[in-house]
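Notes from hallway chat w/ T.B., transcribed later so I don't forget. T.B. wanted the structure written out for a chain they're using in a teaching module, and asked if we could keep both sequence and structure tokens in one place. Agreed to drop them here.
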Amino acid sequence: MANRTQDQAGVDLDSAAQARKLAEQGLHEQAIGHNEEADRLLIQAQEIDPEAVAEVLREHDAARAPDARLQSTADQDVERVLPRIKPGPEQSSG
């Protein structure tokens, strides 16, 4: 019975590794613009081990700055909405 548990654990680890590899490949395909292939790989990985896919996506998101693709746009929006504070003459209290 102990061997069966170890075998199941080994199979689970293999499944997680396979799902992880497919998810990573899917993200790579997405990055180079192959969206249909990326979707296919991510769906396949999700069917094998959803938790492994979730972990890959969390790691991927953690490695990127928030709104990294739109940072220049965000900077422009801030400049437009929030006026620069310019130092003026100091007023003496008295």
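Follow-up for T.B.: Residues 7-66 form one domain. Might be a good example for the class.
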